[in-house]
Amino acid sequence: MGKALFIVNPVSSGGKTGKLKWPQAESALKANGVEYEVIITEYPGHAIELGRRAALQGRELVVSVGGDGTLNEVGNGILSAHGEGDLPRLGIIPGGRGSDLCRTLGIPVEAEKAVQTIVQGSPRKIDAGLMRYILDGKEEERFFFNVAGLGFDAEVTARANRMPGFLGGTLPYLLSVFIELARFRAKHVRLNVDGEERDLGEVAGVIVANGRSYGGGMLISPHSQVDDGLFHIIVMKKSNRRRLVMNFPKVYKGSHLELPEIEELTGKVIDVQSQERMLLQPDGEVFGETPLHFENVHLALSVMVPGGSSEGG
User: Fold this and answer.
1) 68 and 107: one domain?
2) What does the angle CA 74 – CA 80 – CA 81 come to, to the nearest 5 degrees?
3) What is the number of structural domains in the chain?
């Protein structure tokens, strides 16, 4: 596979990636006789630059070592080189709080087993979500690979990201849910899915899902497939706080879809407009706001996974 490039975010998971996960992975690489190069990220967005450079250099394999945000950056860097030749395959050594896309793809969280997946696994092509959003008054463009959330979800994620890394992946999200329940106000949203316009009225949030889970194991979109060319859209209608608290555990089993205040849609092209400011969180990072445009880019990225190859989808 040639010399692989490992892009390591040392501050991921409160610094655990740099102190624990990467040394474990590096030991496994040496034990397996893998030729590799490593670059440590130095600032937000650095992994995008490194991923793009690696793609333009003709690398066959680029590995993200870090959390969902690092994975998002590396994947964006690779896809930004589309049209410049064959794109690298993406390997993943999970080092963050959530690692939910890895959960969906069956990629182990243990460093040694993740290395084995990179060395002995097979490529699987997955869809990507192309987003256009507003950031600092300008329209920006970026891909997401797992889940993008708007409204309540983004507010919860923003708060969870400010909590200490030693709390792990699920606890910060849970705490943030209950804190935000006390202060969040529903937003008036208009949704267009594949050309069909809908006025949703006041909603708590909208989830655009390529993957199945987020927030460290919350099964927000159990019907999602990462390679079917479709988004699943989960609309969380306005509800009273007591019902939200009582029904919140259902999201871990995916049974929240049975609730009357939850609606599930599917589509390839989605536009979201809101009367009030509505934050966006793609792949666990919070940036941007409405109006938003999403397009499903079918089988855009090739990821190393355990088991047999499904490169063709």
Assistant:
1) yes
2) 105
3) 2
Question: Is residue 313 in a domain?
Answer: no
Is the pLDDT at 170 greater than 80? The verdict is: no
135 and 116 share one domain: no
Domain boundary among 101, 120, 139: 120
User: Which of 87, 120, 153 is the C-terminal boundary of a domain?
Assistant: 120
- Size of the chain in residues: 313
Here the tokens at position 115 are 């290395």
- Mean pLDDT value of segment 13-28: 93
Give the C-alpha separation, 139 to 136, whole Å.
Answer: 8
- What values do phi and psi take at 287, rounded to 5? -160, 145
Global pTM exceeds 0.85? yes
- Rounded Cα gap, residues 161 and 96, in angstroms: 11
Radius of gyration of the chain (CA): 19
241-281 per-position pLDDT tens digit: 788 878 888 999 999 999 999 999 999 999 999 999 899 99
Q: What is the DSSP letter of 214?
A: B
Domain membership of residue 26 as a residue range: 4-120
93, 178: one domain: no
- Residue 116: CATH number of its domain: 3.40.50.10330
Name the residue with higher pLDDT: 95 or 56: 56
Of the pLDDT bands very low, low, confident and very high (cuts 50, 70, 90), residue 102 is very high
First-to-last alpha carbon distance for the chain, in angstroms, is: 21
Tell me the average pLDDT of the chain: 91
User: How far is C-alpha 279 from the chain's CA centre?
Assistant: 16
Using DSSP bridges, classify how beta strands 280-282 and 147-151 pair: parallel, antiparallel or unpaired.
antiparallel
Rounded to an integer, the average pLDDT of 174-196 is: 85
- The two counts, helices (H) then strands (E), for the chain are 9, 14
Residues 145, 273 within the same domain: yes
